[in-house]
Design goal:
This protein has helices at residues 7-22, 31-41, 43-49, 55-81, 87-110, 115-136, 146-172, 178-199, 210-228, 231-235, 248-270, 277-314, 324-336, 351-358, 360-377, 404-411, 440-455, and strands at 342-349, 383-388, 391-396, 416-418, 421-423, 426-433, 463-467. The protein is of the alpha+beta class. It contains 17 helices and seven strands. Helix 6 packs parallel to helix 11 (248-270). It has two domains: 2-307; 324-467, Reverse transcriptase/Diguanylate cyclase domain (Alpha-Beta Plaits). Strand 2 and strand 3 form a beta hairpin. It starts with 6 loop residues before the first helix and ends with a strand. This is GGDEF domain-containing protein. InterPro entries: DGC-Regulatory_Protein (IPR052163), GGDEF_dom (IPR000160), Nucleotide_cyclase (IPR029787), Rev_trsase/Diguanyl_cyclase (IPR043128).
């Protein structure tokens, strides 16, 4: 994969990471300036990527620029006042938020066809991060304040969820994307760096050990290089859409994710350890909406699948009209209700000649065109169906069918054009009035016989009708 990386970009990454590795060895007074210099170098490759002018690329560049503005502010404060303050923290937080939004943008664009799988990955990653947080970082009054701890936990859960989403995108990808792999390196570096701050026992991010800063610097370098890699263009395209299935394992997983944080709190209580109220509140507030959205999507997907199956069972796949089964059900219901509807049995004249001359694909196209014209002739109260082959049937309520035939005659005045050739086909119509209480089979047999009588009548008309 590295052989596809431009030599200049690879050289930058190697040199910058060597500088990052040496950063913790630098004297304390030099580190702020060195932090700014190394961090700002990430803007160089990111600036070259701006010519693509994609939204995520601009956000990543802006995020790196804002972060480095914070680093420059800190270096200036140390150089001119000899003191460090919290002013640069706003820049750093804002920059990381921009990077997080850019990663979310990439996920939504690349994974738009795999929303369910991405939600599952996010829930899994957030749940795992919550569990590790509870085990490795129990609340202690001698460390950071509750507010700082809550802020760190929010960042950890957000970064973990984004890492899970990007990992799912990477798993679903059918091509090797170095830019995506780069972001899969950046997020763990940020996660480890943020978690390490809790061990530093300080609310001031500017007083943390040098190796923690090195983690963040490595992330900036990799982010700048990743966005400049040529594969970034492909990463911003929609990815594949894997099949999203609802099964017992998926439901058990979602249920376990909902129960995780309350169970962790219960175990902490039984073990005599202080309950991490911050984790219980924030973890639940993050996981529950994600799981509810996931379940809602699964329910909607199942409803759509059931509706599609029901539609396929009652409609003709070629024309989209009701099929014979659906038509018979409607006719049976009308007859059982004591109604006397008009039934029109229609058969194309000249269809076989089109099939023989132009082929079956042209014949299918002709059937779709006929279905469209007939659909324009019927009313919303009528039922139009493809009975089979080149036969169509129409059911009109007792008082609504008298004007149907003139509308069909007008619709068939214009010849059909199929495969670039004129298909001069006609229509034979058998019309019958159903008797109340009669069975559907008898009514359709009468209509079929009337249709054949129309077919045998004068052949000078394009639409021939026989009423029985």
């Amino acid at each position: 994969m590295l052989k596809d990386v431009p030599p200049a970009l690879l050289t930058y990454v190697v040199v910058a990471l060597v500088a990052v590795a040496a950063f913790p060895l630098a004297p304390d007074g030099v580190r702020p300036l060195l932090y700014f210099l190394i961090g700002s170098s990430s803007l160089l490759p990111a600036a070259f990527a701006l010519r693509r002018r994609e939204g995520p690329v601009r956000l990543i560049f802006a995020g790196l620029a804002v972060i480095n503005a914070g680093g420059l502010w800190a270096a200036a404060q140390l150089a001119f006042t000899g003191n460090r303050n919290q002013a640069s923290l706003a820049f750093i937080v804002a920059g990381h938020l921009l990077l997080l939004v850019a990663a979310l943008w990439i996920v939504l664009r690349r994974g738009r066809g795999d929303v369910g799988g991405i939600l599952d990955a996010v829930v899994m990653a957030v749940g795992l991060a919550s569990l590790l947080w509870a085990v490795l970082l129990p609340p202690r009054p001698d460390t950071v304040s509750a507010g700082t701890r809550a802020g760190m936990l929010v960042l950890v859960l957000c970064l973990a969820g984004m890492l899970g989403a990007l990992f799912r995108v990477e798993r679903a990808a059918r091509e090797s994307l170095l830019a995506l792999r780069a972001f899969l390196v950046v997020l763990p570096l940020a996660l480890v760096g943020i978690v390490s701050l809790t061990f530093a026992a300080t609310d001031d991010p500017l007083l943390r050990p040098g190796w923690i800063d090195a983690l963040f610097l490595a992330g900036y370098v990799v982010a700048g290089a990743g966005v400049a890699d040529p594969s970034m263009v492909r990463l911003l395209r929609p990815g594949p859409a894997p099949v999203d299935r609802l099964g017992p394992r998926r439901l058990a997983f979602l249920g376990g994710a909902l129960a995780l944080n309350p169970v962790v709190a219960g175990v902490q209580q039984l073990a005599g350890r202080p309950v991490d109220a911050v984790l219980l509140a924030l973890g639940t507030a993050v996981v529950v909406p994600l799981v509810m959205v996931r379940i809602g999507r699964l329910a909607a997907q199942r409803s759509r699948a059931e509706a599609a199956l029901a539609h396929e069972a009652t409609h003709d796949p070629l024309t989209g009209l009701a099929n014979r089964k659906r038509f018979l059900a409607v006719l049976d219901a009308e007859l059982a209700a004591g109604s006397a509807p008009l039934i029109f049995f229609c058969d194309l004249n000249g269809f076989k000649a089109v099939n023989d001359k132009l082929g079956h694909l042209a014949g299918d196209e002709l059937l779709r065109l006929v279905a469209d014209r007939l659909s324009a002739c019927v009313r919303t109260s009528d039922t139009l169906a493809r009975y089979g082959g080149d036969e169509f049937v129409v059911l009109c309520p007792a008082t609504d069918g008298e004007g149907l035939v003139p509308r069909i005659e007008a619709a068939f005045e214009t010849p059909f054009v199929v495969a670039g050739e004129t298909a001069d086909v006609g229509l034979s119509i058998g019309a019958v009035r159903a008797e109340p209480g009669a069975d559907a089979v008898t009514v359709l047999r009468r209509a079929d016989a009337a249709m054949y009588a129309a077919k045998a009548a004068d052949r000078g008309q394009r639409v021939r009708t026989y009423a029985a």
